[in-house]
Design brief:
The protein has 987 residues and is mainly β. The chain is built from 3 helices and 70 strands. The chain has 6 domains: 8-179, Galactose-binding domain-like (Jelly Rolls, Sandwich), CATH 2.60.120; 188-296, Immunoglobulins (Immunoglobulin-like); 304-508, Jelly Rolls, CATH 2.60.120; 529-614, no CATH class; 622-892, no CATH class; 899-985, Immunoglobulin-like (Sandwich).
């Protein structure tokens, strides 16, 4: 609105002059002007006044000339400000309406209210607002209401209160109403409404109910007109279908067209205000309709089984029944169903909020049958039942849960408390069953319960705890599981006890089986747990620390603890309390006895032994910080409920080897009484006795720092696997395995071939570790630097290479030396040489050599681990045997045949990733390499490789911890060739 200078006398004189001269006022298009100078209306009562040839109705309005009346001359209209105040044309102005302008100001110092200007093209039947509502300021500044309308034909206007209420004097002066003709020929799109409000729905229930407006047009060019909805709305020309982001009116001629509008489905709870529908085309200027909508909060959904499980303590229940949209004090009928009531059987999703289903809240001692909330004391609330002859006898209460954990649920642990108020001489059952389809139920008799038959003399609420693991459910994500409690009369007569449940907790359960024989195991857990839950609750015997199964006098003598942790100083430390926590990535060393109590006769508690734990599984990616120091060992626990593959994980300053203690390594070996004595399994990223480097759930393992580690070594666990499946590019590895077995003992040693290897020690050599059993066999080969290796990683070579062997056993007897996995490079041969006689025996995949070995007791393991572990075998004497490897005469060409034919860059794995991912690339020859990571703006964010690299396959770990989520490019420049790929970081 603009401030106006009072120039009415001048305009009046100019207008009279042009009339006398017979000249039209084309320059101003002022075809109809009302200045109130020649008219009279002295009261606010409704009446008709002729203003410049057209009758107007003035209600709660008059023509004033008082000193407090603002006027642009001698008179102006005074609007009283009541809710009914208005000035309405009773006749039409011809030639349409192009523009409208009105001058206004407050009367005297009256407080002001809102006003609105509207027009009608159908003799006042329907009215359309012009512009926005206006209110005069609290000042004497004259304002102007000025808008372009552009409607053709007969038209009339009215000025009225925007808010049609109130009877206070809030007077407004209006003067100089000027209406210009609509100039034909200007294309025009005219929606019947300028705004539509009150689109609404509850979250999850969209779309909203549709509303509509009518579109017309004038002077259009018959081209298409498009009606485009804003982001959160959609439009259609059909009320019940065809909704989309826009609709097109083909060759639109301006005829009346209904446009339907609704708020889109799938929106989050929020207000969607001041969004604009745009109407464009036809040669006209765009027209708009403003829309306002709201998505309100959804009613509470039924509870689901999440990654954290499900729990219910009924603290929000007040006995108000069951509903699909529960009010305060009600339970969700999407979860709970009660049957066996005289008022009928409840249903999932039904409304059961009265009668037997909603008996209210009490403390006990009720007599009417039905469902109750009972306050049993100590801030404990239960979902309770009072059975009678017609209620809950028999009856069921069923809990239905949808699996929303994001993974298949195989096993669950359920725990709940039963509360009984034993005030009647009748026993009732309260038994448990479960189902995967709500049709066939499996009874879990271990949880069955019956109330006492004889009433207590002084009844009080008594708690009965129940817990069990349910196995073999296999509930896919999105499917349902059902848990049901059944009740019926058992014995006795008369009235029945009140009882109910609370503290219902259902969590994922994870399990593993310990098989074989007595001995040490290295155990981890896929959930946060304690020694109590991991060992004692699973009847794994513990001794000689606080809370253990045995803490007697013998613990001060020769008997010691059987549970140990690996400390940061590289030593084993005995457990101190059964409540000690076992967190993500941690593992413990446990000596597992054959019997749950070693004092019982042998065989009372045979193998296997099952370990069950429950809770929310640890998530990956997960980083385990290793102990600082070159070549140091760190104990790690697999933190996931699935297997992991060691060489698929990210590593910083770590050797490529991993060690797992297998207490059943020797199962199936012949002879002796040492079956199950155990041995270390290792893997170096190429081969080894730990097949494919796969580490199972619940398994602990040792990693080793690289020889060049200077600080902050770490293992980043980023992905899991199943079985031996490998998701990624796998290249052929050359290796040879020798097996030593006999007298119930066994061990193996490996030779692997690599272009990056050294004849001396390197980070792909797996050391020979001292076993954790008192009886064992050791077979290893010496590196060029004299270290005893379980896996000896050597380079390709020409000529001959001799590897002295160490063979040590703790039981004398007959043994055989045989080839295991056997995949030598083409042209290579292997021989076992007896240095005493010089006789060489060629080794092939089918070779077996019989040996007689004497026991040696070097570094024999004790029944408890040493102060430092794991211990690398040292001061080991070579046996009379050595492995002789002979390379072919065409080694270079054979090696070249195994090299990549061209430079290649693999897709990173995993992708997307967070925060680490592995990048593999291959080189056909030695060359200068630069591997970098850049963002989408081309800025270099990391340099992974920059220097000369040897031919072959290479792998680099990229850590994006310091970067934001997004798409990044990684670029390999090898010689003159450049290869670029993209990867996605998601945090």
């Amino acid at each position: 609105m603009k401030q106006i200078t009072t120039i009415k006398p001048l305009l009046t004189a100019i207008f009279a002059m042009f009339l006398v001269m017979g000249v039209g006022l084309e320059i101003a298009d002022a075809q109809y002007v009302v200045d109130f100078e020649s008219e009279t209306k002295g009261s606010y009562a409704s009446g008709t006044v002729t203003l410049n040839g057209i009758d107007w109705d003035m209600t709660e309005a008059l023509i004033g000339s008082l000193p407090n009346d603002w006027k642009n001359g001698a008179k102006s209209a005074r609007m009283r400000g009541y809710g009914t105040s208005s000035m309405s044309m009773l006749g039409n102005k011809s030639n349409g309406l192009g523009t409208i302008s009105i001058q206004y100001r407050r009367f005297g110092t009256d407080a002001q209210v809102d006003w609105r200007v509207e027009y009608s093209t159908n003799d006042g039947v329907d009215w359309t607002q012009i512009g926005s509502d206006f209110t005069a300021p609290a000042s004497n500044d004259v304002q102007s209401f000025s808008e372009t309308v552009n409607v053709a034909g007969n038209v009339r206007i009215r000025i009225k209160r925007a808010t049609e209420s109130g009877t206070s004097d809030n007077r407004l002066n209006i003067d100089d109403i000027t209406l210009t003709d609509y100039v034909p020929g200007v294309a025009n799109l005219s929606p019947s409404l300028t705004e539509i409000t009150d689109f609404t729905y509850a979250e999850g229930d969209g779309p909203s109910t549709a509303q509509n407006f009518t579109l017309t047009g004038m002077n259009l060019d018959d081209s298409d007109v498009t009606v485009t909805a804003p982001t959160n709305f959609e439009v259609s020309t059909t009320e019940g279908s065809g909704y989309g982001a826009s609709v097109t009116l083909a060759a639109y001629d301006g005829s009346s067209q209904t446009i339907y509008v609704r708020l889109k489905a799938g929106l989050s709870e929020a207000t969607y205000a001041d969004e604009t529908i745009t109407i464009s085309g036809g040669g006209a200027s765009d027209a708009t309709v403003t829309v306002f909508g709201e998505v309100t909060a959804a009613p509470d959904p039924a509870a689901t089984f999440t990654a954290s499980g499900f729990s219910a303590d009924f603290s929000d229940f007040d006995g108000g029944g069951f509903s699909a949209a529960p009010a305060t004090g009600q339970l969700h009928s999407g979860n709970w169903r009660v049957t066996g009531m005289s008022d009928g059987a409840g249903t999932f999703g039904g409304e059961h909020t009265s009668g037997d289903f909603a008996r209210g809240s009490f403390t006990g001692g009720v007599g009417t049958g039905g469902v109750y909330h009972f306050d049993v004391g100590n801030s404990t609330n239960i979902l309770g039942f009072q059975p009678t002859g017609s209620d809950f006898e028999p009856g069921t209460i069923t809990l239905r849960l949808e699996n929303s954990s994001g993974a298949t649920v195989e096993n669950v642990r359920i725990a709940y408390d039963i509360y009984v108020y034993n005030n009647a001489d009748r026993s009732n059952s309260f038994n448990f069953a479960y189902s995967t389809d709500d049709d066939t139920y499996t009874d879990l008799t271990a949880l069955n319960y019956s109330t006492p038959e004889a009433a207590d003399g002084s009844p009080a609420w008594v708690k009965v705890e129940r817990t069990a693991v349910i196995e073999g459910l296999n509930i896919a994500d999105g499917d349902f599981m059902y848990f049901r409690w059944n009740s019926d009369d058992v014995s006795g007569g008369g009235s029945r006890d009140e009882f109910g449940i609370t503290n219902v907790n259902i969590t994922k359960a994870f399990s593993t089986q310990l098989t074989g024989a007595e001995g040490y195991r290295i155990i981890s857990a896929p959930v946060p747990t304690t020694l109590q839950a991991l060992l004692k609750d699973n009847n794994i015997y513990t001794q000689c620390f606080t809370g253990a199964d045995y803490t007697g006098d013998a613990c001060t003598g020769d008997v010691g603890p059987n549970v140990f942790t690996f400390e940061n100083n590289g030593s084993w430390a005995a457990a101190t309390n059964i409540t000690n926590e076992v967190d993500a990535g941690e593992a413990i060393l446990v000596y597992v006895y054959t019997n749950d109590d070693p004092a019982t006769p042998a065989g009372d508690n045979p193998w296997p032994k099952t370990i069950n734990v429950s809770g929310t599984a640890h998530t990956i990616p997960f980083q385990k910080q290793a102990r600082n120091g070159a070549n140091n060992f760190t104990l790690v626990g697999n933190p996931t409920p699935r297997s992991i593959r060691f060489d698929q994980q990210g590593a910083t300053e770590l050797a490529s080897v991993v060690y797992v203690w297998d207490p059943n390594y020797n199962d199936g070996t012949s002879g002796g009484s040492n079956v199950g004595s155990g041995s270390w399994r290792s893997y170096n990223g190429s081969d080894g006795s730990l097949t494919d480097g796969i580490i199972g759930a619940f398994q602990g393992f040792f990693i080793q720092n690289s020889s060049g580690s200077t600080g902050n070594p770490a293992l980043n666990i980023t992905t899991t696997t199943t079985g031996g499946q490998f998701y990624g590019k796998q290249t052929e590895s050359f290796s040879a395995e020798l097996l030593l077995r006999g007298e119930g003992l066994a061990n193996s040693t490996w030779v692997t071939f690599s272009e990056q290897a050294r004849t001396g020690d390197d980070d792909a050599d797996a050391a020979q570790l001292v076993p954790l059993s008192s009886e064992y066999a050791v077979l290893g080969s010496f590196t060029a630097e004299g270290s005893l290796a379980d896996i000896n990683n050597i380079p390709f070579f020409e000529g001959e290479l001799e590897l002295p062997l160490a063979m040590h056993v703790t039981t004398s007897g007959s043994y055989e030396l045989a080839a295991g996995k056997w995949n030598l490079p083409d042209g290579y041969t292997a021989y076992l040489e007896d240095t005493r006689s010089g006789v060489q025996t060629e080794l092939t995949a089918s070779t077996v050599v019989n040996l007689e070995l004497e026991a040696s007791r070097m570094q024999k393991s004790a029944s408890t681990p040493g102060p430092v572990g794991p211990q690398v075998m040292s001061d080991v004497q070579a046996s009379p045997y050595k492995l002789v490897l002979k390379g072919g005469t065409t080694t270079d060409s054979e090696i070249a045949a195994q090299l990549p034919a061209e430079v290649t860059l693999d897709q990173n794995y995993p992708n997307p990733f967070n925060p680490t991912s592995r990048i593999n690339y291959q080189l056909p020859a030695d060359m200068q390499v630069r591997l970098t990571v850049v963002d989408m703006l081309g800025r270099e964010v990391a340099v992974l490789v920059d220097g000369a690299m040897r031919a072959g396959s290479h792998s680099v770990n990229f850590d994006g911890s310091a970067l934001s989520s997004g798409i990044y490019l990684y670029r390999l420049q090898a010689g003159a060739q450049v290869i670029t790929r993209s990867m996605t970081l998601i945090k």
